Amino acid sequence: MAAPKASLDEKSQLEYIEDRSNIEESAEQFTPKQAAAIRRKIDLRLLPALGLMYAISLMDRKNISNAAIAGMRKDLDLLEGYRYSLITLVFFITYVVFQPPMTVMCRKIGPRIFLPGICLLWGAVVIGLGFSKNWTTMVALRVILGILEAGYFPGCVYVLSTWYAKFEMARRYSVFYLIGSLGSALSGILAYGLMQLEGVEGLRGWRWIFIIEGVITCGIAIFAYIFIVKFPDQERDKPSKIPFLKPDEIGHIIDKLQRERGDVETEPFSLVKFVKPARDWEIWGFAFMLFCMTTVAYAFAFFLPIILKDNLNFSMAASQCLVAPPYAFAAILMYSTAWGADRFKIRSPFVILNCVIALVGLPLMGFHTNPAVQYFGVFICVAGVNANIPLIMAVQGGNIIGQWKRAFCSATLTGLGGVGGVAGSLVFRTQDAPDYIPGIIATMVCCGAVIITMLILTAYFKWANNKADRGELVINGNAEFRYTL
């Protein structure tokens, strides 16, 4: 009796299972050129879509500063007290609190549905911000926005870390973050253009900033759904009807990752296993460094247009548009240091270098009296700080093993990064205008703290590696694993 005809998905899985014994052997047959071509396939499916959604997420969380100088503060009575700071701050409360459960949901649901899905929902919330009648409504919508965006950044950090080996990560993180930063930097120019819709359909220009950017967000979410792929083990076990990698190609990727860190296979979820890495102090060292960097990065994201207008005395149009060039320069430094970190297989010297660059720029911006020199200082500090964020992500990603540990660490890393958003929203206070000297000092302290933490971690990693070389220590449960310095 003939067997029933299998569906296309079943056929794909059966064919893969039959060939599975040969995959490791065929995977070894790839030349370096062919292996690079496979990586490019992964890059093209992940980096543009994830980067664009990250750009729009940054734009949607910081367009509040563009709207602020376009009339929102006056219309919604935000010129007194901490109302404006409260609107920027509440986003990060839910953003931080909901990151661990949202990261687990990303693993369970899969990135292809989860990440574009939450992007589509937060786009609808941003449209709602454009129709807010009072500041309390805006606070409520920013709370919801924080919940939805909570799953995005840790989800991206997690999915990227599952596809790339440790010395492939820094460049990929930098490209992902670079696309996000450049897109976000252009938000000032876009916001200035949208402000010209002042009075159309009876709406203020600042309202159009939210409405149009929300519509763009929804469109990018649909685009991303078409391109984003699943986790490697999901692509292997449940291949799509039109898989983007052949079985031997996905076998090559999985075999490479399995040999490097042995954590491709996902264990059943256990809350105890998920939170167990909280005992490892270095995990909190990674997260603390990102907290310091995001404190500075978000401080500039929320207040740079205001600082350019109030402190450097640029016009409103110039303040909106002059935000973009420093981020373009940051992109160059970001990729250069990431390339060097992967090429030379070291991290700490480049992290420290970026902090030193920022520490040169911050005093120029804060204490010099010439606006041109101050704006040059903005270039330097924005570049150094933003270049360090993907690099710190790579420091963490290359020094951990295990799927649920990777998920937990992604949540803690980006969670404390989100706390940096809370701190960043309070760094440049209204009462410190127009010089904002306390904010400048606070950001300099953050850069210095990263240098000290990186030096401590590097000394510990070197000590642990030496003990492992002598056979006196097993790192991360793997005798072959060594920390990246």
Automatic annotation (TrEMBL):
Pfam families: MFS_1. It comes from the Eukaryota. The chain crosses the membrane at residues 82-101, 113-131, 143-163, 175-194, 206-228, 283-308, 314-338, 350-367, 373-395, 407-428, 440-461. Keywords: Membrane, Transmembrane, Transmembrane helix, Transport. GO terms for cellular component: membrane. It is found in: Membrane. It is a multi-pass membrane protein. Its main location: membrane. Residues 46-466 form the Major facilitator superfamily (MFS) profile domain. SUPFAM superfamilies: MFS general substrate transporter. GO terms for molecular function: transmembrane transporter activity. This is Major facilitator superfamily (MFS) profile domain-containing protein.
